[in-house]
Amino acid sequence: MIRLxxxxxxxxxxxxxxxxxxxxxxxxxxxxxxxxxLEEKRSWYYGxxxxxxxxxxxxxxxxxxxxxxxxxxxxxADADQGYSKMAISCWSDDxxxxxxxxxxxxxxxxDEDSMTKGGFKIAVNSDVLNVPDTGLDLSLAEAADxxxxxxxxxxxxxxxxxxxxxxxxxxxxxNTDYAGDIWMDNIRFSSAAGADVYVDATxxxxxxxxxxxxxxxxxxxGKSHTYAREIQLADSKADASAVALYQxxxxxxxxxxxxxxxxxxxxxxxxxxxxxxxDTKDLTGSLAAINGFDCGGLFSGFAAKYNQRHPGENxxxxxxxxxxxxAALLSNEAIKEGTS
Length: 340
Prior knowledge:
By secondary structure, this protein is of the alpha+beta class. The chain is 14% helix and 30% strand. A seven-stranded mixed beta sheet has the order 3-4-1-12-6-10-9, with no helix packed on it.
């Protein structure tokens, strides 16, 4: 069943004056639309703090106008950047239900006379729904009015789980000198059934590797590999635990086994969540030997993931502090199963 939010949005981006550069000529806006919900609450605002390689933050703003969300941007000072990001954010006190949403769609309007080179990427960020940087193919845009172009966009993502109050749309310039009007209209979230790409497992996952160890040797599948007495390390002051780790790794390298590492092995899954907390465990019977966590966004969304996995416990706040605590708790759970 396709579920559309009552909340809809549109975005207008226009140029700002840069010293030594004439202001852009603004094209006529698309016809006003009858929108309700988020727009009427005037809940869209400039996403301060999301900028990256973007020099026009002080000259940028976001405001509602004519049933659309209007922002002011200018990428001319960053036209040599392959990644120049600004963002608009939305907040709803009532919350936005994104349960099972896996599609984000909108109409993207831009003025072709407002740029001489480059293009755009779009990203969507929230606690429960995220769309990675996705390039917009402007060659598929259709004529809207004079030099105004319209590009229908549909983005796919993993099924969202839950309700959010805030969501951020990042508009990323790719080596562009764009300085003019842009609209994102009819923003909508929906749930669309995808193709069934799964198969039913007929064998119980179990590892065939037998691993034991002692103070002097590592035994893999019955064959013993003595730890090297001397290990040459770059750090002459490495402590005993570091030396022991390299002795272990050297022994593994001499065996017929291998150590497998997987990013966020116990956090993100492609397979069914009712099997285990890890795709690796689903297939091998054990977690990955090395489990990595991405802290680039301060573990954004980890609190929601932890709360979903532990519904009967005290729920962690969906804040930076909550996400960091969730990452620590998820790490401890993985360590108890033997990962590192």
